[in-house]
Amino acid sequence: MENKLTHHLLWERLRTGDKDAFFDLYKALYYPLVNFGVRVCADADLSSEATDLVFTTIWEKHETLNRVDNVEAYLRTFLKRKLLRILERKKKLSIALNNVGADGEWMEMSYEEFIVKVQSDELVKHQLKNALEKLTFRQKQLIHLKFFDGLTYEQIAEQTSQTIKTAYNTIYDALKVLRKELKN
Predict the structure, then answer these.
(1) What span, in angstroms and rounded, lies between the C-alpha atoms of 114 and 26?
(2) CA dist., res. 169 & res. 163, Å (int)
(3) pLDDT tens string 22-74
(4) Which residues contact 79 (CB under 8 A, 6 or more apart)?
(5) ∠ CA 36-38-41 to the nearest 5 degrees?
(6) Cα–Cα distance for residue pair 88/41, rounded to 1 Å
């Protein structure tokens, strides 16, 4: 409980631009956050990098930070989201490299084969874009929050001022529309 109060006081000082408070908070929470991150992603280097990004971000935005009761829990959530975004980007990069043939296969393709591959990828993108246009604004918003930002239904409901059930149903309906459109 004492740590929670100390962290809260440091946070409040940090919000006013107190560098000493920032460094004290960093010293107090850096290793617990890195350890938490390792449990999330099983990669110490990635966890350390993401933790640094979290602290860099809070310093850069210290003037606009909200009051927080449990600073460590807040930073854990922030770190978890940061890690999920980094992992998602890495996954997308890996998929893209596999699609092109990262093992050098794309260099061995004829020009015609390469053009066909690029055009088929463009066709998929076009179909997805058309399918997304069938969604309502709210459906697009919730799909983005769920699958691109990696938020939970609870977080989506809180952010959009909806009930959890409404958020779930909206995303479910949007996915039905996307499946139907992409089958055509």
Answers:
(1) 49
(2) 10
(3) 889 889 888 998 888 888 888 888 888 888 888 888 888 888 888 888 888 88
(4) 33, 36, 37, 40, 47, 50, 51, 54
(5) 115
(6) 11
